[in-house]
Amino acid sequence: MMLMVSVQNLDEAREAVAGGADIVDVKNLREMMVGSNFPPVVREVRNAFPKQIHVSVTLGVVPNQAGTVAMAVYGAAALGATSVKVGFVQSDYETALRILRESRRALDGFDTKLIAATFADSHLYQGLDPTLVVKLGKESQSDGMLIDTLVKDGRNLFDFLGERPLKELVLEAKEAGMSTALSGALKVANLHTLVRINPDIVGVRGAVCTHGDRESGNVVASAVAALREELRQRLTGKIDVFAEVGPTAPRIPS
Q1: How far apart are alpha carbons 149 and 134 in whole angstroms?
Q2: Contacts (Cβ under 8 Å, ≥6 apart) of 44
Q3: Known catalytic residue at 27
Q4: Whole-Å CA distances, 59 to 34, 37, 110, 128
Q5: Nearest to residue 84, comparing CAs of 36, 147, 29, 136?
Q6: In the chain, where the domains are located
Q7: Is the distance from CB of 115 to CB of 154 less than 8 angstroms?
Q8: Where are the beta strands (DSSP E) in 189-243?
Q9: Largest alpha-carbon pair distance within the chain?
């Protein structure tokens, strides 16, 4: 399981990598909390690290304009991004599928992976059903899927989707050969559940920022390293993530 840390600049990217992040996800928090950063920032971050450090680019919530999105996807690939995430909120299924298919075509000749993203809380915006993400990914020949959240008000991924449906989506995506990622205000307290679900990638920001503040705080290497160690202990079985599952344990939400 890989650890992805969202960063806004090169300094944060260096902190993330020093702390043991496998992926630095370049984004811009000033644009809908998950917006795109500027090409010079992406280029700077990509050029600072060897290829084994993955540098992903978030396009955030994209407009319902396939040509505009395809051009942005092409730009991310031209900058050397390992992957590019295309996220949907207020799109219908057919529009989202068309955008992803055009994004797939834009990546011809590049090694950059296309990631289809939806948001677990999209119903708050009358948006696309997040559980359609695997279907979207398969029909568009995307390389992976991500489920994230848009609201940053103290709620997180598991306030909107339970363990069982998330596990089913992750398994379905893996069976289709797609990479799987979960994010959305995740904390150490969520690691038990995350390891049971077993996505390929876990994404964080606030949990590894000063004061736990994803907006005004900065990514700190020591916090990344501490979370990385907490994850390692669960993955190796030193901490048993199934210990709480039993006759007296709370029922897994559906």
Answers
A1: 16
A2: 10
A3: yes
A4: 8, 8, 17, 17
A5: 36
A6: 2-235
A7: no
A8: 201-204
A9: 54
DSSP β-bridge partners for residue 201: 2, 181
Residue environment code for 115-153, b if the CB has 16+ CB neighbours within 10 A, otherwise e: bbbbbbbbeeeebbebbbbbbbbbebebbbbbbbbbbbe
Q: 187 catalytic, yes or no?
A: no
Burial label, 198 (beta-carbon count in 10 A; 0-12, 13-18, 19+): middle
pTM: 0.92
Which of these is catalytic: 85, 152, 167, 238?
85
Q: What is the pLDDT along the chain (254 residues), one digit of tens a residue?
A: 999 999 999 999 999 999 999 999 999 988 766 789 999 999 999 999 999 999 999 998 899 999 999 999 999 999 999 999 999 988 999 999 999 999 999 999 999 999 999 999 999 988 899 999 999 999 999 999 999 998 878 899 999 999 999 999 999 999 999 999 999 999 999 999 999 999 999 999 999 999 777 676 799 999 999 999 999 999 999 999 998 654 433 333 43
Q: In this structure, what token pair is assigned to residue 24?
A: 């630095």
Q: Tokens 């993203």, residue?
A: 117
CB–CB of 228/4 below 8 Å?
no
For the domain 2-235, what is the CATH code? 3.20.20.380
